[in-house]
From TrEMBL, chain A:
It is found in: Cell membrane. Keywords: Cell membrane, Membrane, Transmembrane, Transmembrane helix. It comes from Oricola cellulosilytica. This is ABC transporter permease. It is a multi-pass membrane protein. GO terms for cellular component: plasma membrane. InterPro entries: ABC_transp_permease. One of its GO terms (molecular function) is transmembrane transporter activity.
Length: 304, 362
């Protein structure tokens, strides 16, 4: 029983972790992309559709990643090349994504989906309690963990990561040093889009292998909140994402057990929890200010 | 080939006036391409979408019914955006306004008289303000990001409404449908010209709100304060304006107007509470605010355009057999185009053929 619950927590946490990891890199470069929800839902619809057409959930996953990345370039072109307001552009990415996915996915509604099968690693998955939890998960789970380590290593232990943080902290100085601010930010936004797309693909290929309109249900926004919660540190994202996975799964189980609380109130818990952790973290000014990229959300036009 | 921006010494007045129209033109072009891909003749599709709904009196009324909440919400949002407060939870404030306003006709249906409607409207405004006060206070006192908190509250409001109409507020005579009881005659917002169509007084409220807000923003100290706090909070502080005060004022204005829109929609257009009372007006109003260039009078025009996109979606679904989701796609494209065109106001765009030695490549 406990094992089954823990297993589902990981499934609920993985899309949050992936999308948040991508956004973390984007924000570390000084760009605030509020379009996570839109890129995620495009990933979900593209993943489902490609899996249907090809008969392979792996093709679906690839399509999800590409769709998220492609969609993020729309945001990149506007905010980076045309220097538009990042908040408004991110919002419009979400609005367009929700609309476009609804239109593209209309014929997918009600179709049975293809599921990306779990990989049980022989031997290791036999270990009692943690075996199933760590070594018998869906492939995207392993990717999300590997990616967390990779992002952490990249951001803090590589020269390119240092460059990324420099661009995010002061684009003017970075530009003066000869760093290609806009190009670096494009790459960061692209990575963020690919991650959000993969997170969406997880939803429609693993979490609930089907297509329903607005199936991201605010997860992109929760991922954005997680980045703030984690104060831009990758390993804290894991804690945050699993905490939220736990809240989501706990409310599902409470609904199934019929605990006498209306299901709507239980469904509202993850959203209320998001506000709660935001308040908690933001009231501690010292902690948030230390890691916030100083140029976050400010448009940059190179002087020539 | 790459794009270079060169900052203008002054914002261009020409492009300031032209950019919304340019954005509409781009959207129509992209729309035509989209229809062509869907296998419809573009000119017929665009006609069915944007012109046909304007050719009949009843559908003009429907246009005003849909424009009323969009304009009311967008005016409030524009005040927030001008002061650099990103309230994107208007959808939630709209819903809570509708719920607060419905307390009287749903819980006390035997209470009748000419006072019912004014009380409902005031309660609706109060409801929206209360709900908007949450992210405002969190931002002002605890520095919590208002974008995320106001958006999360949208989901909470939707679930709360869903619970109400399926639970305690379900119509006792409603055959178990998830609906509240129908509003009695005294609780219904009347039509403006009832002989010709459904347009109710919500549109009149929207026009009044636009004029009043134009006056406040352009002719009063409060309006000046809102602008200054948006453009340069540091200068605002030196002028003695309060950051917390501006956050609260702008959120309360936005929440109040969204609440008014909510109760007007429920009382004027629907006549009862249902699990879903808005096709995303709170989010579409963000587009209205930007298309109207955050100017109350521009917002009235922009509200009519976006209302047309909803109507056109329905019309195109019937006459062309395309999905009514096309409307949301149009709206998304429109916001992108507006933001892209606004770049022309502050920058000259140069297309350079070859990257210069030290330039920023794309």
């Amino acid at each position: 029983m406990i094992e089954a619950i823990l297993l589902t927590i990981a499934t609920a946490a993985t899309p949050l972790l992936l999308a948040a990891l991508g956004e973390l890199v984007v924000e570390r470069s000084g760009v605030l992309n509020l379009g996570v929800e839109g890129m995620m839902i495009m990933g979900a619809v593209a993943g489902f559709g490609a899996a249907q057409l090809s008969g392979s959930p792996w093709v679906g996953l690839l399509a999800a990643v590409c769709a998220g990345a492609l969609f993020s370039m729309l945001f990149g072109f506007l905010t980076l090349t045309l220097a538009t307001n990042q908040v408004a552009t991110g919002l419009s990415l979400t609005i367009l994504g929700l609309g476009l996915s609804g239109m593209l996915g209309e014929s997918f509604v009600g179709l049975p989906g293809l599921k990306l099968q779990a990989w049980a690693i022989p031997g290791l998955s036999e270990i009692p309690l943690i075996g199933k939890l760590l070594f018998a998960q869906d492939p995207i789970f392993y990717i999300s963990i590997a990616l967390t380590v990779a992002v952490w290593w990249f951001v803090f232990f590589t020269r390119a990561g240092l460059t990324l943080r420099a661009v995010g902290d002061s684009h003017v100085s970075a530009h003066a040093l000869g760093l290609r601010v806009i190009r670096i930010r494009y790459l960061a936004v692209l990575f963020g889009g690919a991650c959000a797309g993969m997170a969406g693909g997880h939803l429609s290929l693993v979490y609930t292998p089907q297509w329903t309109e607005n199936m991201t249900a605010g997860r992109g926004w929760i991922a954005l909140a997680l980045v703030v919660f984690a104060s831009w540190l990758p390993w804290r994202l894991v804690a945050g994402a699993y905490l939220f996975g736990a809240v989501t799964i706990a409310q599902f189980h409470a609904q199934a057990q019929g605990v006498g609380i209306p299901s709507q109130f239980l469904s509202a818990l993850p959203y209320l929890a998001t506000i709660f952790v935001l308040v908690l973290i933001s009231s501690n000014r010292r902690m948030t200010m230390r890691n916030t990229p100083a140029s976050l959300g400010k448009p940059f036009v190179p002087e020539r | 080939m790459r794009v270079e921006l060169v900052r203008r010494p002054h914002p261009s007045a020409l492009y300031g006036a032209l950019s919304p129209f340019l954005a509409l033109l781009i959207t129509a072009t992209l729309g035509a391409i989209m229809f062509a891909i869907l296998g419809k003749a573009p000119h017929l599709a665009l006609y069915a979408y944007f012109i046909e709904p304007l050719t009949e009196v009843w559908s003009l009324h429907e246009l005003l019914v849909k424009a009323a909440p969009l304009i009311l919400i967008a005016i409030g949002l524009s005040v927030c955006f001008l002061s650099n407060n990103w309230n994107i939870g208007a959808e939630g404030q709209f819903i809570i306004g509708a719920i607060f306003g419905s307390v009287l006709p749903v819980m006390f249906p035997e209470f009748r008289g000419p006072f019912v409607l004014p009380i409902m409207l005031l309660m609706g405004i109060l409801g929206g303000m209360t709900y908007a006060a949450i992210p405002a206070l969190l931002k002002a006192k605890l520095n919590t990001n208002e974008i995320l908190s106001s958006l999360m509250l949208v989901y909470v409001a939707q679930l709360f409404l869903d619970w109400l109409v399926r639970g305690p507020w379900r119509n006792p005579q409603g055959f178990n449908f998830p609906e509240s009881r129908n509003f009695h005659a005294d609780a219904v917002l009347p039509e403006v010209i009832s002989a010709s169509g459904r347009a109710h007084y919500g549109f009149v409220f929207a026009i009044i709100a636009a004029v009043v807000m134009w006056y406040i923003l352009n002719r009063t100290l409060k309006g000046f304060e809102i602008r200054v706090m948006g453009q340069s909070p540091r200068a605002g502080r030196f002028a003695g304006f309060s950051r917390a005060g501006t956050i609260l004022t702008t959120f309360l204005i936005a929440g109040g107007l969204a609440g008014l829109a909510g109760i007007s929609e429920v009382s004027g257009a629907i006549g009862q509470l249902r699990p879903v009372i808005s096709p995303g007006y709170g989010f579409t109003a963000i587009i209205v605010a930007f298309l109207g260039r955050l100017n109350p009078l521009g917002i009235v025009a922009a509200g009519l355009v976006l209302a047309l996109s909803y109507l056109g979606g329905e019309a195109a679904q019937i006459s062309l057999g395309v999905s009514n989701k096309v409307a949301n796609v149009f709206q998304g494209i429109l916001l992108f185009s507006v933001l892209a065109c606004d770049t022309l106001i502050h920058y000259r765009v140069r297309i350079a053929g070859r990257p210069s030695a030290e330039g920023q490549g794309v």
